[in-house]
Amino acid sequence: MAFYLVTGGSGFVGTLLVSRLLDEGHDVASIDLLPTSLSHPRLRATIGDIRDRATLDAIYATGTPDAVFHCAALLAHGSISTSDMMSHNVEGTRVLAQASAAAHVRKIVYLSSNCLWGRGFDRPVDLEQPEPCEAYGVSKLEGERVLAALGDRIETVAIRCPTIIDEGRLGLLAILFEFIADGNRVWLVGKGDNRYQFIYAADLLNAMIRAAHVPGSHVFGIGSDNVPTMAETFQHVIDGTGSRSRLAAVPKAPMIAAMKIAHHLRISPLGPYHYRMIASSFVFDTSRIKQVLGWQPTLTNGEMLLKAYRYYDSNRAEIAARADVSAHRQATKMGVIRVLKYIS
């Protein structure tokens, strides 16, 4: 059995990954700004900041991990400032890289993002020429560059992933789920004919664990296969729940303009990245990760989103009372979107 370090081990993906590694019989250390919900004799959980070199050195003093899974990141949610996000996501990655190199870690698997691109595409996206449009994407791209600068000292694998979906995944998705649960109209920007790729969390974990053992350094795009339109995806969830909700379209240009104004006024949780997800297409070319890792996705967009909705519907009261959990494990506040819900 192996020993692994998971940064961001109390977050949505981090918690799932730690649980998976423990179930497989491995020893795990984790570090996060928030306490973990997990307890296990083979888990050593640290509440700490990856920018604190002394904290990382203390973890490495207990043993050198076979690999580090770097999931820690501040998201562009709520009141988080751009400077804080850049500090955690870039400087934190730099400190982690330096501590890992000093401890002779063999491999770092970095959870990157499709936020490296600020526009949609009408074709499968390869991995060349990323162009982030907002601070989170910039921070993740800089994190990749920090790790790539390690050269031959540590092998690194960056997995660029779209929105991660599974039971318990909330955040902005909880807004959609509330509309469906309450039978409100679900609004499409334009015709809803854009195709936006998701990734099932269990499929992502499979890829991350495989990446920890693949020779060499790599950059991969990951995501589901057979991506339907957003209208088809939302309709799959509505049909699967028996909701009274109906899809309704609004003209794309004025809706995007209104979203930009609301974001500028800080009365909406939707930012530049979300404009693209709602209104344009983005599907990774996943041929490279399939070839190198022998990896395959298992769930479609509709299937994984329906799983996430059913969790939300069964735990709605408990979710509303949550505090001191990561952004993806609580419902994002609607802001001005609640007005749209009232008229739906």
Description:
The structure is a single chain. The radius of gyration is 20 Å and the shape is globular. The strands form 3 sheets. It has a 7-stranded parallel sheet with strand order 3-2-1-4-5-6-10, with helices on both faces. α3 (82-102) runs parallel beside α4 (135-148) and α7 (230-241) crosses α11. The protein has 2 domains: 3-165 and 197-221, NAD(P)-binding Rossmann-like Domain (Rossmann fold, 3-Layer(aba) Sandwich), CATH 3.40.50.720; 173-196 and 228-280 and 308-342, no CATH class. The protein is built from 13 helices and 11 strands. The protein is an alpha/beta fold and 344 residues long. It starts with a strand and ends with a helix.
Count, helices: 13
Q: What's the CATH architecture of the largest domain?
A: 3-Layer(aba) Sandwich
CATH topology of the largest domain: Rossmann fold
CATH class of the largest domain: Alpha Beta
Please name the fourth-level CATH homologous superfamily of the largest domain.
NAD(P)-binding Rossmann-like Domain
- Globally, the shape reads globular
Category from helices, strands and their pairing: alpha/beta
- How would you state the average pLDDT, rounded? 92
- Determine Rg (CA atoms, Å): 20 Å
Share in β-strands: 15-25%
The string of secondary-structure elements, in order, is EHEEHEHEHEEHEEHEHEHHHHHH
Describe the sheet with the most strands: 7 strands, parallel
Domain NAD-dependent epimerase/dehydratase: 5-214
InterPro entries: Epimerase_deHydtase (IPR001509), Lipid_A_modif_metabolic_enz (IPR050177), NAD(P)-bd_dom_sf (IPR036291)
Protein name: NAD-dependent epimerase/dehydratase family protein
